[in-house]
Specification:
Elements (H helix, E strand, L loop, with lengths): L25 H4 L26 H15 L3 H14 L3 H17 L3 H13 L5 H17 L3 H15 L4 H13 L3 H13 L6 H13 L3 H14 L4 H13 L3 H13 L6 H17 L3 H17 L7 H13 L3 H11 L7 H12 L3 H14 L4 H14 L3 H11 L6 H10 L5
Length: 431
């Protein structure tokens, strides 16, 4: 079975949803022109209640409070709206005041508090249909922001059933919630529905659709969609990144390389991630195919180009990657040099041991011993293998006691115990 690709389409970048922060103004509901305005929910099943706001004083205070919310004057808005929410004789006035307070809490980052206030506003019951359903939709958005995805779906379903309204945005919201719940077939259906309801679908919907295809194992569909999006937006860096990511997840490495090389030839590789990804693509292609050395040579060339331009920064990961590339390319001197540059920034001894291993092949036993010992002292995953390499360096230096001591250490590690014990027995040093 093929190994999973090193780079994966990130869900975190999928579909950013904006939540409306402007409340529905009270003056709209009592306007003399209300009957002339086209209803937003003309087919709603909800019976529109009779409004009970009769006080000019409350009407004026509400407008001032909601204007303060829109102006982000929190202190003034709370001073005006809280008393209305607490004690107004008008349920309608209370509902609008609660809505305004919910907006304040949302803007302050208190999403749970905003949800509680908005639910109280909706549950109050005395709202014209246009306002009621707008707030219900806003509640679904609040749930998404609070990562309460099932309540968001339930709210959207209720909004759609009672309001008798379908919009592209509502299906996109639904698709986002299904994606977060890892219900990918439902997410795909919802996003496709959203796209069918508008001639100007949001670009982020395609990202969500691609991710849903990829996560559900439909990698061919994800790759096809990514390439279509790139063809429509050839100079879009995000489209290019998405196309490469899904091609890699589909294990279509040659196609991903072709896209990135085309971008590179046009001077389009402008960030470290792109250079590193292309380097890794060449390495994994070499591992999967028959020309590991040739692909590793290309990998090293790409990474060194990025370093020469100052795009790829000098870091442990990048020098280790360069060392690995040169190692597979059989460029021993360049590989050792890269590993040595990685060592001062390393948290472990892997690069040091790898450099020492290469020097052993060059019969540079003294330097190899020093590097391998440094690696062991700093910590490596395969400690037994490192001790066997150390023993080999000691043998090259004609230091049999040192070789025996290193092999005895290797004999204590499960991965190398059998080989080390056999060597010790043959050398007459077994206990």
């Amino acid at each position: 079975m093929k190994q999973a690709p090193m780079i994966k389409l990130l869900a975190g970048a999928i579909i950013a949803l904006s939540v409306a922060s402007s409340p529905v103004m009270a003056r709209d509901s009592n306007s003399k022109d209300k009957d002339k305005k086209e209803a937003l929910y003309p087919n709603a099943t909800r019976t529109e209640p009779k409004l009970d706001l009769t006080s000019d004083k409350d009407q004026k205070a509400l407008n001032e409070g909601l204007d303060a919310v829109n102006a982000q004057d929190k202190a003034k808005a709370e001073q005006i709206l809280q008393p209305i929410a607490d004690s107004s004789k008008s349920k309608y006035a209370q509902a609008l005041a609660l809505q305004g307070l919910a907006n304040l809490h949302y803007n302050d980052g208190d999403i749970k508090g905003a949800i509680g206030l908005l639910k109280r506003s909706i549950d109050n019951g005395v709202m014209p249909n246009d306002t009621y359903f707008q707030l219900e939709y806003m509640l679904a958005q609040f749930y998404i922001a609070d990562e309460q995805y099932q309540p968001a779906l339930d709210t959207i379903a209720k909004w759609r059933a009672e309001g008798k309204k379908e919009t592209a945005e509502s299906y996109a919201l639904e698709g986002n919630a299904y994606y977060r719940l890892e219900k990918y077939p439902e997410a795909i259906a919802a996003i496709k529905k959203a796209q069918s309801l508008t001639d100007k679908p949001n670009d982020t919907w395609n990202q969500l659709l691609m991710a849903s295809y990829a996560e559900s194992g439909q990698t061919d569909q994800a790759a096809q969609l990514a390439q279509q999006q790139l063809a429509a937006n050839p100079n879009d860096a995000t489209a290019m990144s998405n196309a490469v990511a899904v091609l890699m997840q589909s294990q279509k490495y040659p196609e991903a390389i072709a896209l990135m090389e085309k971008q590179r030839a046009a001077g389009g590789l402008k960030d470290e991630k792109s250079y590193v990804n292309l380097t890794k693509l060449y390495l994994v292609t070499g591992q999967e195919g028959s020309d590991a050395k040739g692909n590793a040579i290309k990998a090293a060339a790409v990474l060194k180009e990025g370093m020469s331009k100052g795009v790829v920064q000098p870091s442990y990961d990048n020098y280790k990657l360069l060392g690995d590339s040169e190692y597979v390319a059989e460029n021993t001197t360049e590989a050792v040099d890269a590993y040595k540059k990685a060592m001062p920034m390393a948290k472990d001894g892997e690069a040091a041991v790898r450099a020492g291993q290469l020097l052993l092949a060059e019969n540079k036993f003294s330097e190899a011993k020093s590097l391998i010992q440094q690696g062991i002292d700093k910590g490596v995953q395969r400690k037994g293998t490192a001790y066997m390499l150390l023993a080999e360096a000691e043998r090259g230096l004609k230091n049999k006691p040192g070789a025996v001591a290193a092999m005895q250490k290797a004999a204590q590690e499960p991965e190398t115990a059998d080989k080390a014990k056999a060597w010790l027995k043959q050398a007459g040093a077994s206990k």
